[in-house]
Amino acid sequence: MEFRDKIWLGVCIMLALGGTLFAIIAWNSWRSTYRIIRNGIQTEGMVLENRRRPARGLEARPTSVAPVVQFVTPDGLTVQYYSQTYTTPATFQVGERVAIWYLADDPKQATLDGVDAWIFPVVFGIFGTAMCLIGYPTLISALIAFLKR
To answer: Before 89, cis peptide (omega within 30)?
Structure first.
């Protein structure tokens, strides 16, 4: 097996394993969100602020923001949910009332209606699927060619 073939085989293995990892993360994220929406309690919360995404490395001040939503459970517990979905422009305005789902036994596990609920699993699912569709067929054909030698 030539050095070039070994490199290509390594790339295929990395694509296949990376794609599988992305797909597993997407599946777990989707399951968690689905569980919150299916078993959770829907209520209305209010957007307290739109916090900026932290800067990375030498990056200038980022413009994307994510909402911080406050809601109250039936037993009077006030909870703040910090969305991890950063957008430009802001999806919600400060003071806006929004739908939010949370788990009764753990109100910190929550999700907002809309993009917040599905963006992470969809993006990771697309990347995982693409990487697997490139990695596995190429890996399998490389292994078959190797075994035929």
So the answer is: yes
Instruction: Please state, in angstroms and rounded to a whole number, the distance separating the CA atoms of residues 98 and 46.
Output: 6
pLDDT in tens, the chain (149 residues): 678 878 888 888 999 999 999 999 999 999 989 999 999 999 999 999 999 887 777 777 778 899 999 999 999 999 999 998 888 888 899 999 999 999 999 999 999 987 778 888 999 999 999 999 999 998 888 788 778 87
Torsion (CA) 56, 60, 62, 63 in degrees, nearest 10: -170
Residue type, 20: T
d(CA 111, CA 40): 10
